[in-house]
Amino acid sequence: MIELTGVTKSYNNTIKAVDNVSLTIPKGEIFGFLGPNGAGKTTTIKMITGIIRPNAGQIKINGKDIATDTLEAKRQFGYVPDSPDMFLRLKGLEYVSFMADIYEVPREVRSARILQLAQRFDMTNALGDTIQSYSHGMRQKIMIMGVLVHHPEVWILDEPLTGLDPRSSYTLKEMMREHADSGRTVFFSTHVLEVAEKLCDRVAIINRGQILFCGTFAEMQQHFQSNVSLESLFLELTKHE
């Protein structure tokens, strides 16, 4: 579960990147976080993950406060950032093993997990190569593998499908559904509205730091008394902002 209560982030004490946002994402749900470029999506995600601190408000991950119980809160989730260009000099296997070390994954189980993830993402033959030599899509896949190796309860994914080939994209969406259906939480941002419409149990639309809507796609259609696509409703919501 992810809980945000009155979260605000300002820059230079004037620009509110995130403005009094409150959200609750329960277990067993895929939650889509949507918004135009610069709307506050990544800032919100960086606050949830503890990378930056809010000016006001509280954030809890499975009941652990990210500000006051930071280590325990961070043990609850796996985070895929919006750029996979990290640890480029490590080999793929070295990176995933490093992540397993950080999260204290027992050595007797990590090999099987790494192998399973590599097989699902078609990365088995690339584990011995440096991340620097990978394509963008392969870097994205190795970052996802590193995040999932410790079986986190909560997945926090910032534009995770960017750069993935169709097969890997399908695999990740399948894994997201499996994770939520097992009673865990998936929170992800995306600009691909068709994916959000088909995959998410609920969505929130943020623009200029404020939540414009939060609920199911059906609730959004009912609110607007329309049966058009999520893309059309999204454009309608954000056009005057």
From TrEMBL:
<dbReference type="InterPro" id="IPR027417">
    <property type="entry name" value="P-loop_NTPase"/>
</dbReference>
<dbReference type="InterPro" id="IPR003593">
    <property type="entry name" value="AAA+_ATPase"/>
</dbReference>
<dbReference type="GO" id="GO:0016887">
    <property type="term" value="F:ATP hydrolysis activity"/>
</dbReference>
<dbReference type="InterPro" id="IPR003439">
    <property type="entry name" value="ABC_transporter-like_ATP-bd"/>
</dbReference>
<protein>
    <submittedName>
        <fullName>3-dehydroquinate dehydratase</fullName>
    </submittedName>
</protein>
<keyword id="KW-0067">ATP-binding</keyword>
<dbReference type="GO" id="GO:0005524">
    <property type="term" value="F:ATP binding"/>
</dbReference>
<feature type="domain" description="ABC transporter">
    <location>
        <begin position="2"/>
        <end position="233"/>
    </location>
</feature>
<dbReference type="Pfam" id="PF00005">
    <property type="entry name" value="ABC_tran"/>
</dbReference>
<dbReference type="InterPro" id="IPR051782">
    <property type="entry name" value="ABC_Transporter_VariousFunc"/>
</dbReference>
<keyword id="KW-0547">Nucleotide-binding</keyword>
<keyword id="KW-0813">Transport</keyword>
